[in-house]
């Protein structure tokens, strides 16, 4: 190696090298500090998560034991009884509710041309069946009889009777027709 400097003024790059070494040392120390902080933070988080996981595992095993105990204490007869009562309640609800749209669609398809509806009143009888009271205006008794036959032919109506008939001053027959209405029976029939 040549130790002689041939320049007019000797210049050694020691300070620049020392400056670069200092910058490098500062970067290494900064990166080391950053990594040390991250390691400490992650180890704390890992400890917390491990504690929470063990607590959750303990809770899950307790719940599994409770579930096994509850399954053992379930009375199948009691469940079957409750299920039967729920089915009966649903049947009662289905029997009590009906669609006005379906009812009037059936009226439209079954009413003779010379019969008009003046009122419709649904109510439940003592047996829980839906009874419709329909007041109609017709030209003749034959039209009312045709209406009764048409209603019973749908399968939704049963025991349809004309309970009151009288002619008004215009010569039209005002009749009150009553019958049991069960729309579910018509749906089951086909």
Written overview of the protein:
Helix content is 58%, strand content 21%. It has helices at 14-73, 76-96, 100-110, 141-153, 183-188, and strands at residues 115-124, 130-138, 157-167, 173-181. A hairpin with a 5-residue loop joins strand 3 (157-167) and strand 4 (173-181). 9% of the residues are buried. It contains five helices and four strands.
Write the layout of secondary structure elements.
Blueprint: H1 14-73, H2 76-96, H3 100-110, E1 115-124, E2 130-138, H4 141-153, E3 157-167, E4 173-181, H5 183-188
Antiparallel strand pairs: 1-2, 2-4, 3-4
Highlighted features:
Alpha-Beta Plaits, alpha+beta, 5 helices, 190 residues
Quick recap of the structure?
The chain is α+β, with helices and mostly antiparallel strands. The protein is built from five helices and four strands; from the N terminus they run αααββαββα.
Q: Structural class given helices, strands, pairing?
A: alpha+beta
Distance between the termini: 112 Å
What is the H-and-E element order? HHHEEHEEH
Number of strands: 4
Radius of gyration: 46 Å
Write the CATH architecture name of the largest domain.
Answer: 2-Layer Sandwich
Helix content: 55-70%
Most strands sheet = 4 strands, antiparallel
**Strand order in the sheet with the most strands:** 1-2-4-3
